[in-house]
Amino acid sequence: MTDFSAVAKGDELPPLILQVTRADLVRYAGASGDFNPIHWNDRTAAAVGLPGVIAHGMLTMALAGRLVTGWVGDPAALRSYGVRFTRPVVVPDDDEGATLELSGKVRDVVEGEDGSRIAKVDVTAKFDGRTVLGRAAAEVALPG
Hints:
Residues 18-104 form the MaoC-like domain. By secondary structure, the chain is α+β, with helices and mostly antiparallel strands.
């Protein structure tokens, strides 16, 4: 359990490793309404020059955000979150899927206007050893 009163610049969040499967893409498509065939059809993905079916960018972003909300223990504590999409996550048509490696580091801790402590966290998301989100950063209100 994290002692949030002691969170400081340079602290690392516990890493999170997630598998993204084609079934996850189907569920996300249904929830988001994004049925673009590059997220489910190998022929379409290849026809537009992709190396295969890719995860939705917003799904990748959401999974990376889970690193921060899981650490703090409350999704409502998230004050801001933004990323740039730099590379796709290619999801093979097998039972294993794609491995998404997530890590984070506290860039700073500041006092919010309401007196709360706000951690500014830099998030790293990697697939196949390469960063897939750039400038991924979150601001989260620390508990207690």
